[in-house]
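queue> pop job 88
queue> type: inverse folding (structure -> sequence)
queue> payload:
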């Protein structure tokens, strides 16, 4: 969507922000286009019809995680847009910081402990009515053995770069580990560009 179309959308549904500068941001994500609105806000719009259910689910549940020990996106506005197919979209507070790559983390151990503390707190959030693991979540949260058909060939492809035998043993051991507790929330994409660092510390989690 062109910047002018974003501004037109805001004029219709959120006129209080229609005069803010609009800047589309480069993103490796396949589901949503991201625009910065002024200096304090962020707009997420689905890029394709298949993403409509995903962003609706995100907007439904994200407010439940507001009190976790790391920052998460804070929803300021929820609206609807019609691309020929209808979808929700969200406007959020801008989260200042950098991708949590090694060069942006001053103390890796402190960052690891902060992330572990965040995940432990995430596991304590009530799950009643939560979306189940499976195809609707790109198979995130399914039993690991269900992913062996894609993981083991990937290990084979990397056999000249990693210890493939050790990787296979590790994968099989992980698959044999059974979760015996209650259902919990999980973050299915904890990679560096979904983590935010500021002043050398891990401060936020996205996506």
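queue> result:
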């Amino acid at each position: 969507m062109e910047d002018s179309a974003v501004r037109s959308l805001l004029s219709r549904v959120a006129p209080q922000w229609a005069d803010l500068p609009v800047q589309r941001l480069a993103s490796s994500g396949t589901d949503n286009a991201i625009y910065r609105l002024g200096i304090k806000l962020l707009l997420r719009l689905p890029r394709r019809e298949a993403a409509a259910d995903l962003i609706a689910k995100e907007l439904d549940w994200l407010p439940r995680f507001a009190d976790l020990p790391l920052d998460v996106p804070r929803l300021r506005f929820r609206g609807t847009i019609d691309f020929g197919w209808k979808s929700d979209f969200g406007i959020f507070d801008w989260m200042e910081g950098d991708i949590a790559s090694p060069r942006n983390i001053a103390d890796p151990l402190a960052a690891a402990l902060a992330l572990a503390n965040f995940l432990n707190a995430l596991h304590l959030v009530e799950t009643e009515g939560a979306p189940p693991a499976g195809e609707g979540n790109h198979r995130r949260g399914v039993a690991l053995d269900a992913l062996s058909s894609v993981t083991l060939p990937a290990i084979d492809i990397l056999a000249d770069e990693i210890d493939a035998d050790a990787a296979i043993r590790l994968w099989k051991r992980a698959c044999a580990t059974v979760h015996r507790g209650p259902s919990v929330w999980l973050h299915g994409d904890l990679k560096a560009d979904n983590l935010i660092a500021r002043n050398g510390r891990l401060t936020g989690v996205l996506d």
